[in-house]
Amino acid sequence: MTPPIPQSSPGAGYLACKDEIDAAIAEVLSSGWFILGKQTAAFEKEFAQFLGAGHSVGVGNGTDALELALRACDIGPGDAVLTVSHTAVATAAAIELAGATPVWVDIDPETFTMAPERLRETISEYEEAAVGKNLPLLKAILPVHLYGHPADMPAILEIARLHGLRVIEDCAQAHGATLNGKPVGTWGELAAFSFYPTKNLGALGDGGAVVTNDPALAEKLRLLREYGWQERYVSRLPGMNTRLDEMQSAVLRVKLRHLAADNARRRDIARQYDEALAATPLRLPRISSQAESVYHQYVIRTERRDELKAQLQAAGVGTLIHYPVPIHQQPAYAGRCYQSLHGLPHTEQAAREILSLPMYPQLTNESVNQVCDLLLRWCN
């Protein structure tokens, strides 16, 4: 009987460098220092260097990273943030945790990221609708580099400049992705990363970081992540408690050394899928000519998605839907946030058709071939 093929496997990532990770954890345990020590300081420096950024500030998780990035920009109650509904709900949750309000922008149907033309349209409509009404003030754009593919940052930054908006990148799924050779996370004023175990760079628990080239923002982030303390027990700012601990930092330092190779393997797996499935009616991922994706997910599209998912599950192949219900249609958000008069048709259609195939660096070529054979038989 063929062993099951999971959709993702964070445990395999640990086993691939188990000895290194175990040694790093042992070093932390022997040190007796578990919060904001030398491991976190070293990881922050190494992660910033990996991205070519000036500063990295470790926090408790990716949602906190987004919230702190917004708060560092003084975005809060009475403010609105333009973002997408086709993303993990953490993106919207972080905006509301900061006290601000999401404004939905439709996606590009090929890259699944914020469509610049829809962004322009939504800003124009929102500003017209705000005349004489008490709508929150647009303050920022929060594009999401979804599935490892960069959003169109040059176009988004130009729109932001024209309207005086700040740009904060959601890089939770794009560690190491580039656009025009420039890493995501270094385009906007700030960028938020998640180190959840399934991410391209994943810890053995929760973790996150905010990246910036602005030393003043970096210092403000360090205050905000620990009660606003500049000196212990004295809060200069109203902050929170969200610290990347030493154990996770030590693990991330090990896994960061393997990230480039892991991303290269993800791209190799994607090429195998591309070549094997090119002649099928399935819609395969399309990568922008100037982008280098890190394939956090390999997402196909078909109108018969649920049928295909069931067929693969019956054969022992794990798949997932990232994400089955757009945020603007979820009970907690439905009808509460502004969206374009034209709606979010590409977002809603994607949610009906997308399916994430198995994708992780330790996936073998044999397993990829098995998945492709099943897909080819189903298509025929």
What does this protein structure show overall?
By secondary structure, the chain is of the alpha/beta class. It has two domains: 10-254, Aspartate Aminotransferase, domain 2 (3-Layer(aba) Sandwich), CATH 3.40.640; 259-379, Aspartate Aminotransferase, domain 1 (Alpha-Beta Complex). It is built from twelve helices and 15 strands. It has an eight-stranded mixed beta sheet, sandwiched between helices. Strands 7-6-12 form a three-stranded antiparallel beta sheet, with no helix packed on it. The chain has a two-stranded antiparallel ribbon with strand order 10-11. Strand 10 (229-231) and strand 11 form a beta hairpin. Helix 2 (18-31) packs antiparallel against helix 9 (246-277), helix 3 (38-51) runs parallel beside helix 9 (246-277) and helix 9 crosses helix 12 (365-379). The longest helix is centred in the C-terminal third of the chain and has 32 residues, at 246-277. The two termini are 24 Å apart. The mean pLDDT is 97.
